[in-house]
C-alpha cells in the first residue's frame, strides 16, 4: 500500500480548542439557516403547487423570506469554513482540489439559484404557474450544492482516497461511491426538510397578529412536515450508523464517553421533538429541534476526528501563540451582536406586527 | 509542493482567479461606496422634499441589493474557493496567520447584510432618521470589511517586517496599508458614483435624471481625482523590485497600464461631458461606457497589483510556484521531486526525464503558464528555444527575468523540465549536445544557449546590422550597460569571437540578402 499523502499543516495562533469551539459555535448557525432555506423552499413549492388561498399565501411568505435566508446561509457558512480550514486545512484543501471542477461550480450554481430566488420573490404573482417550477429549479440547484459539500466533507476525512489525484488531476474525483456517503447525504437532506417545517411554522408565528389563519395553517403544515421527515430521518440515521466502520460506530456506543452521551442526548431530543410536534407545541418542538441540530454537529465533529485519528489529531497542530488578534475578534463579535440587536429592534418597532402583541 | 495541483492545462488557474476577482472587486467596491451614495442620495431627496428622488434612491437600493448581495457576496466566496484551488499553500498561510482578521471581517459582513436588508425592505416604512442611521451602519460595516481585507491582502504586496516575524499586527498594518486603504476607499466611492450614473440613465423622470446624473458625476470626478493621487502614494511605498516592475519592467503590467489609463481618460471625459456640462446626454449607452471605463480602472489596478508581486505570490515569502523563498537552496541540494508530495516520480534518472519533467512543469511553471492555452502559453513562450538553450535558461531564469521565480531543484531536474518542454511539448531534439571540452562552442550554439531565451536571430542581426565584429565583442563584455536584465557574456575570448562572428555574419548575410 502506498503511504498516505498528507500535506504539512501551517501553524495556528491560538490553542486548537479555541478554534474548535468557534467551529462548533458557528456551524450550527449555518446548518439551521441551510435547513430553513432548503426545507422552507420545498414546503413552499408544494404549497404553491397545491393551490388554495392559504397555501398560496404561505408559499408567497416563504418566497419573500428565501433570498434573506440564502444570504444568511452563505454568511453563516463563511465562519465554519474558515475555522475548518484552519483546523483541517491539509485535508480540506487537498480534497477540494481532488474535486475542484465540481467545487468551483458551486459558485455559478449559487449565483443562478440566488437570482432565481429573487425572481421567485419579486415576480411571485406575475410568474403564475411558472413560479413553482422556478422554485423547483432553485431547489435542485441548492441540493446540488449540498451534494458537492457532502462529497467534500466526506472526502476530506478519507486521506486514503487522496491518491485518486493521480488519475483525476483536473479535479473530477467525487466520493459518492464511498461507503456511508448516501445515508450521510440523505440524513442531512431529510434533516433539512424536517427543520424547514419548523422554519415555516416560525414564519407563520411572525404573521400571527396580522393573519391568524395563515399562522395556523403554517404551523399545521410545518409541524406536520417536521414530524414526517424526522420519523424518516431516524431510520436514515440508523442506516448511516450501520454503514460506518465498526470502530467508528462503536464510538457512539460506549467507545467514547462524550460521543456516547451526546448520541444518547440526541436520541432523547429527537424523541422529545417528535412528541412536541405531535402535540402541536411549537416552541417546545423548536427548542428540541434546534438543540438536536447542535448535538448533531457535535457528533459530526467526533466522527471526523475518529476518521482521521490514525493520521492526525488536532493537538498535533503547532501553535505559534499570538492571542491579541483573537481578543480583537471577540470585541468585534460583541459589537456586531449589539448592532444586529439594534437593527432587529428598530425593524420590529417599525413593523405593524408589533401592534398585535400583548 | 505541499498540495496537489489542479491541472487544467489549457485554461490555467490564473485565468480563473483573474476572471472571478476582477468582477468581484468591481462589485465589492461598489458595495462599500454605494452605502454612502445611498445615504447622500436619500438625504438629498429629504432635503429637497423630492418624492421622485426618494423613489429613485429606493430603486437604486434594490439594484444595489441585487448586485452586491448576490453577485458581490457569492463571487467573494468564489475568490476564496478559487485561490484555495489554484494556490492552496498561499491561501493556507494567509488563512492560518490572519484567521482572526478574517473572522472579524465575517462579523462586519454579517452586519452589512442585515443592514442592507433593513435599509431596502424598510425604505419608507421606518422614520427617515432611523433609516439613515441604518444606512450609516451599513456603510461603516462595509468599510470596515474593506479595512480588514485591505490589511490582509495588502501583506501580499508590501509585507514589510511580517515576512520575517509573521506577526499579525506587523502584517496587518504593513507599509502599504494606509495608502492602499485611502486608494480603495476613493475608488469605492468613485465606482459607486458610476453605478449611480448608470441608474440615473434609467430614470424616466427627466428632472430626476438630470439631477442624479450631475450628483453622481460630481461624486465620481472628485473621488477619481483623489484616487489617482492616493494611487501615486501607494506606488511610492512599494518595495523597489515591485516599483520597478510597475514602472516598466513587467511586460504584463506594461500591457495592461494603457488600458487603465484609457479607462481614466474616457471616464473623465464622459463624466465631464455627459455628467456635468450636458447631463441630458447621459443615455444608457453613455452610462454603460462610463461603467466600462471604471471597470478598466479597477481591472488595471488589480492586474497591476497582482503582477507587481512577481515572482512571488506573497512578496519575499512565497514564490508564485508555491515554494517558500527560504526553501529554495535546500531544494536545489536535495531535489524538488524527492521533497514534494503529490508526485509519482520522486526519483529522477535518465529513464524518466520526460515524466519527471511534466511533474516539475505542473509544480513550478503551471501557476503562470498554460499549455497551448490563451494565457501565457508555455509552448509559444519557448517556441524559439532549443533544448540546450532551455537547460541553460531554466538555471538562470530568475536572473534573466526577475519576475519569474527561480527553478528549485537539481541539475538533473532542470534537464528533465527542459526535456518535457522542448521534447514533450515542442517535439524538438532533446539529445545532450556533444561536450565542448576540446574546442570552443560555435556561434550558433552560443547564441542558442545564451541569447535565444529572450531574442530571435532576426531581431539581433537586424539591430546589429553594420556593426563591426570587434565592436560586437566589446558589447558582449558590457551587456549589463545595455540592460540591467543582462549580464556580460561569460564565455572565453574565443567564444566571444565566435558569437560576435555569428551575429555579424548573420548581419552580413541578411544585408546581402536585402540587397
Explain this structure to me?
- By secondary structure, chain A is an all-alpha fold.
- Chain A has helices spanning 16-50, 53-98, 100-103, 106-122, 124-127, 130-155, 181-206, 212-243, 246-255, 257-278, 282-308, 324-350.
- Chain B has 3 domains: 13-319, Up-down Bundle (Formate dehydrogenase/DMSO reductase fold), CATH 1.20.1630; 324-433, Cytochrome Bc1 Complex, Chain D, domain 2; 439-515, Orthogonal Bundle (Cytochrome Bc1 Complex, Chain D, domain 2), CATH 1.10.760.
- In chain B, 71% of the residues lie in helices and 1% in strands.
- Chain B has helices at 13-47, 51-86, 88-97, 99-121, 128-154, 162-165, 168-172, 177-202, 206-236, 240-249, 251-277, 284-307, 328-334, 336-339, 353-364, 378-381, 387-400, 411-425, 443-450, 457-463, 469-477, 479-482, 493-514, and strands at 312-314, 318-319.
- In chain B, strands 1-2 form a two-stranded antiparallel sheet.
- The longest helix of chain B is centred in the N-terminal third of the chain and has 36 residues, at 51-86.
- Mean pLDDT of chain B is 91; it is low at 507-515.
- At the A-B interface, α2, α4 and α12 of A face α2, α3, α4 and α5 of B.
